[in-house]
Design brief:
The complex is a heterodimer of chains A (56) and B (396). By secondary structure, chain A is an alpha+beta fold. Chain A is built from two helices and two strands. Chain A has a single domain, classed as 2-Layer Sandwich (Alpha-Beta Plaits), CATH 3.30.70.20. Helices cover 27% and strands 11% of the residues of chain A. In chain A, strand 1 and strand 2 form a beta hairpin. The longest helix of chain A has 10 residues. In chain B, helix 1 packs parallel to helix 8. The chains are: A alpha+beta (56), B alpha/beta (396). The complex binds flavin-adenine dinucleotide and iron/sulfur cluster (SF4).
Amino acid sequence: MYQCQNYGQCVFEAPNIFHLNDDDKLEHLAEADESERANVENAVDVCPMQAIRIVE
Amino acid sequence: MTEHPVVIVGAAMGGLRTAESLRRAGYAGGIRMIGDELHAPYNRPPLSKDVLSTGVTHEAVAFPSRAETADVEWMLGSRAEAVDLESRSVTTADGTEHSYRALVVATGLRPRRLDFAPTPGRHAIRSLDDAMALRDVLVPGARVVVIGSGFLGCELGSTATKLGCSVTVVTPSAEPMIRPLGELLAHELRTRLEREGVAFFLGAEVIGLDDGVTLADGTVIPADVIIEAIGSDCNDAWLAGTGLDLSDGVLADNALRAVTTDGLAHDDIYVVGDIARFPNPMFDDVPRRIEHWNIPTDTGRRAGAVLGAYLGEGFTEAVATPFAPMPSFWSNQFDIKLQAYGLPGLADEAGIRILEGDLGGEVAVGYHRDDRLVGVVGVGLKAALLPYRQQIAGGA
Ligand SMILES: Cc1cc2nc3c(=O)[nH]c(=O)nc-3n(C[C@H](O)[C@H](O)[C@H](O)COP(=O)(O)OP(=O)(O)OC[C@H]3O[C@@H](n4cnc5c(N)ncnc54)[C@H](O)[C@@H]3O)c2cc1C
Ligand code: SF4
């Protein structure tokens, strides 16, 4: 329900999954390996917009 | 549940993150979370921004709950009144004694209030309940006076204006948000807020709240709603008499262990979130409180890891692990999007200068102490700030 505002905090937590492109837009992989779970959960925690949801 | 759980006082963001981190550190024993609000932990920043203008519900701001903390024992609506460090026990308002094997202090802040007799129409905002009460009165045409011009005051001014209220901000400062932004950027931002319709009384002292807001120079500003956003006080009364250093929040060392006035660190007491005053080697060895949203998460993770090791193994290594969290802050006012990293407030007076962009548009302002970049504030810019963030983290 919250819109990503491209703050890029998630990029620090899970650089393999999230990426800010040259236009300041966030890009992310659609699916993450289980080994990335802790990093993605950390990304959820630090997103100021609380815009990241983990869908199993 | 175990006889002597880890007791976390303050059931909000900092407490929740500590509990999660404790579990990740392998601690499988009892965790009791004592909090005086009735709501499970939720996110506060939207309460002065979008959620205040759309709809204030717990659902809209609640943090997702995780499997790892499903067995946390929640004691909501329960207020800690005292703690006895000798017998290791917290007493709540209903007289119950909660003995603990380790204690986490996560009681955060409350809004400071002006010292005038209570009058109807006065508001302050920290909690969901505060936001609900405020939402009800921010109706189109309402005359709103915001007292205080920090980030919170300016955000509330922006949101109330968007809701159709006519807004005046009254502040003793020379410019809004001047601490920590400095004159240059603060002046620019005021100009932008004025353009959006917010009126400012700068350098103003409030001497009464009876019929509107009365200023020292005799001006009376009529008000239907008065919002006090003049800063916060620490919720530390329950720690009185413990010997902990409560001179500004609760003093902690870099491992977030609570420290006494004699300088002794308690291995079984941790401090997290807005109330924690701890040294951050990214800047120096001076303990500071940082009222930024990332701090409850960073300190909660750290305290959970160290405490988990204390209750498990590897304590010495955990304490010695470096902890230097990057302070980060954002604020949305009208279409102005501010993003800050580091501690701009540490800058020398002459150390504030534009790094790139132009003041009237998108800009990055750098804050230097002894020529070292200690903070950056971006207006509109996002990815462009990341190299500066790197520079702040890198030191020297
Ligand atoms: C309206 C608003 C907007 C904000 N916007 C931003 C922003 O845009 N950017 C940003 O970086 N930061 C922002 N912040 C700051 C950020 O929300 C705080 O840094 C964060 O909430 C601090 O979390 P905490 O867990 O340390 O403390 P708190 O959230 O204050 O939680 C402390 C909890 O302890 C409870 N408690 C207190 N005393 C007792 C007691 N004796 N017994 C039991 N429970 C007790 C309190 O009721 C509360 O639930 C904002 C804050 C507010 C209020
Ligand atoms: S942290 Fe959140 S708002 Fe920021 S880029 Fe990532 S998803 Fe978007």
